[in-house]
Write a structure and sequence with these properties.
With 664 residues, this protein is an all-alpha fold. The chain is 67% helix and 1% strand.
Amino acid sequence: MASRPNLPRQQPSSLGKSSYLTSRLDNLMKSLALACLLLATVCVVSTSAKSLDLTHDLDTTNSYLESSSHRHHQATSLHHQSHSLHHHNRNRRLQRRDSNSKDGNNQHCNDVRVEFEAIDIKLPQHFNEKGAQCGGHCCTNSTEIELRKKAAADFERSLHHHTKSLRGILESTANLFESHVLELAQQSENRTLNVFSQVYKRMLPLSRKLIVQLYSEITSNIKSTGSNALNANTLESVIHKFFVNLFPVAYHQVVHLNKQSYGELHEDYINCLKHVYDDVQPFGTIPKEISRNLMQSIQTAHIFINALHQSAEVLSETDDLYAAHLSESCQRHLLKMSYCPRCNGLLKSHVKTCYSYCMNVLRGCSAQYAGVLDSPWSNVVDALDNLVTMHIRSDTGIVTVIKQLDGKLSETIMKAMENGPELEKLVKKTCGTPRLLPSSTSDSEHKPQMPHNMKWATPVDSELLRFLSTIDKSKDFYSNIVNNVCDDEEMQRSDRHCWMGDRIGDYTQLVMTPGTDTQRYNPEVPFESTSQPTKLNEMVDKLLKVRKTIATAIPSTTRTFNDVQSDMAGRDDEGSGRMPDDVDDDEYRMQGSGDGDGSGDGATSLPYDPRTNNNEDNEILPPSTKSPASKIDSSMSLAALFCLLLVMHQTFSTTIRSYKLKLN
């Protein structure tokens, strides 16, 4: 078999190649157009179906709303009928409850009737009226007015009881100390006369009168407690005159002691001895020492005794001010605290007053006086303590000086006797030699009857120590006086299930510390700054004057810079109380009820806000609950997609035509 020759493959011409590509592109375009047509048909059908579904949903919704409206009218009618029946039954229950409550109130009010009658308060026979303050059936408005006055009087009486105790200690200490010093002065006089009768027998007839006059002046100065200022010139001149008049008697004793005929000095010679007394100084420095010690010790005793009496007067005057200047808020809360439980039919044995509520009420009532008087009073207490410790009970105190006086007077005579020869020479230079006169006194007059008991009176050291202990505890007397009133068995210390002004409950308010700064935030009786009573200013001035007078008896070296500052700021001090550093103003304001009439129900935490609806903000709805608006949004999205496909088809067709023209 002959083999076929390998002929070269014929290549298509350019015209055939163009026809081939054109046919292929036409087929592709037709397929693409058909696909776009099918896709558009599907979109239109889907949109129509969804529109029909939307219409159906709207019809269904309208039908549901119409049926719901019909059912709502039926339910409303039934509700009105049910409400009418419920209201009728409720009125019957309220009538029965009011009847039972009225019977119960009558029983409770009759139970407390005995307690009110014990304080001369008569309750009405029928309890149909509620008091405006206590809100109880047992007290009418007129009864509450009586009880309000009685509560204020009770408060005044309680304060008076505690101030009277301290006032009694001050006055009794002053009287005891003064009487003790006077007793010592009398005993010192007796001991001095006894020494002269035994040691200086020849001097006694002439010196006895001088000694009695000296002690009489000393006693008179001790008793002169009407004024703090001692007349130093008068006492000093009295003591100097005593030694001037004693010098001739002592000189006669020294010079003529051993002579058989003692005799008496001539009056002219006596006058000459008195004239040269200051020049010869026969007793040395002892008279000046006695004069200095007596004046200083008596002055200190004056200051101490008068300070006690004046401090007691301030305490007494405080009682009157408390009763005369009680604020309306204070009187209202005194009523609520003391008698409102009885007005609500609660016996004393059934409920106690909350301790912290009592403290807030009474501290609020006494804030003005405690704030103004506390600092001056505390300064006076410190000054009295220093005065007793450093002076009254010291070696330079009047007790020691009086006890040493008899020995000092004897020491002066001994001093003159020691310097007898030299003293005689000095006197003879001026007065010459004395000429003795016959004695005009008998021997019996030289031996007066002397007391046998020379024992000193019992010391008052224990009483002074007891006084110091008591006065030290009273340093914050005006701030803490209410503590004594509230420390009573009728108070509930735990503040649990107790009377808190308008109901029984747990008292949760803070107890405000003393001082006007903190009492402004008192949840019960907030302090309101008003003009101070004139009498209160006078009491402050009196305390400042007492402190200043005591300071004159204390050496300047013991006065510190803080003491000076305290004196300067005494009148401007409104109170010693300070707000705790860890509590700010906002926290204090949140503790009270806002109007000063809170009773433990002040806001203590932020309330729940019912307007907050967290579920609405975060809830995700399921597909079956989509709204009609969401369905319309879906249809619009499909239409937009269809338009996009048409645009792409048109663009693609234009591109293919351009390519075909290039090939041709």
